[in-house]
Amino acid sequence: MNNVIVIGGGAAGILAAISSAKSGNRVTIIEKMNSCGKKLLITGKGRCNITNSTDINGFMENTPCNSKFLYGALNNFDNNDIINLLETEGLKTKVERGGRVFPVTDKSQDVLNTLLKILKKLKVKILTNTEAEKIIVEKSQVKGVKVKNGDTLNAEKIILATGGKSYPVTGSTGDGYKIAMELGHAITKIKPSLIPLVSDNEICKDMQGLSLKNVSIKLKDKEKIIYQDFGEMLFTHFGVSGPIVLSASAYLIRYKDINVKLKNKEIMLEIDLKPALTEEKLDARVLRDFSEAKNRELKNSLDKLLPQKLIPVIIEKTKIDKYKRVNEITKEERQKLIKTIKHLEINIVGTRPIEEAIITSGGIETKEINPKTMESKIIKGLFFAGEIIDVDCLTGGFNLQVAWSTGYTAGL
Fold first, then answer.
1. Within this chain, do residues 153 and 13 fall inside the same structural domain, yes or no?
2. Is the pTM of this model over 0.85?
């Protein structure tokens, strides 16, 4: 039986502790916050998007950074395993749009409570309000953890699962990077991922709060497409957000070396407001609407086609007189209207601060970690789990599965 210390009581740390305790070890979690799982509670807008129901290939496709590194961990503990773990303890799950898996109760707290119940059964010791200062190493072998009150906790194995730098109020403040660097590990550049995008276009403020469903987007650098997607997005006072925008940000940070601000203003977000219709079919739809409202002014004739907040923005983009009656609109003007609806462009000038990111991109260099065990290739007995590793995914439950899988694997 080994003494195992898990530094960090988030999703990855909890699964690491469960896995290690089930393997017969004496396990202690040290967590600097006053309770475990703070970030877990805010995932999925408080509902906890536990995982995704796709197969392993689907996980690879939704992991733009170091996906191959995850094969071993996902094979050790996959989406079905986390679902079975929770359901065995009485927490049922459900699958929603895009394969997203949630607890049937729609409460993150129920997921956390279930995991804490398992830890209690396994007699895992949890030390809250306890912050790791450094990992003690002798002859490239871990010996224990020095905590900030001056105490030293001895251990034969240590799992570092402190998270990234996003949502620091939950305890993710990047402490683990410093600890790992002091032991000789390389840290790839830390950047925000799954982060809202910033625009200086006034139309975003005009449409603040407007949520668009079933639209398609293209994130472009001039004519080069960086990312494209279909789904839901949201206009905000600073720019754009929502699931497809957050996923787009994961590709933008890899395409441009950005940290909050872009070095140029050539990035455009192109929105197709009616992706189910070709331009010809949309033209026919507009003609039909116009024929039913021949004497109406243009500004009062698009309410069947577009949300109210969008109408003045679209008309302004076309440069058509909003007071012009629809029976006076020329074919050329109508074509401008169609083009604008299918190709609404918003410039992107950067991202929101990393503190607002759902996930951190960057972390412990994967080349320095054994992907089969999550053990350091530099320090014996040191393991990594979760967001601290340089692996990040798109939205949809994929990042939490990385935490479960790498945590379980480290715990073994």
1. yes
2. yes
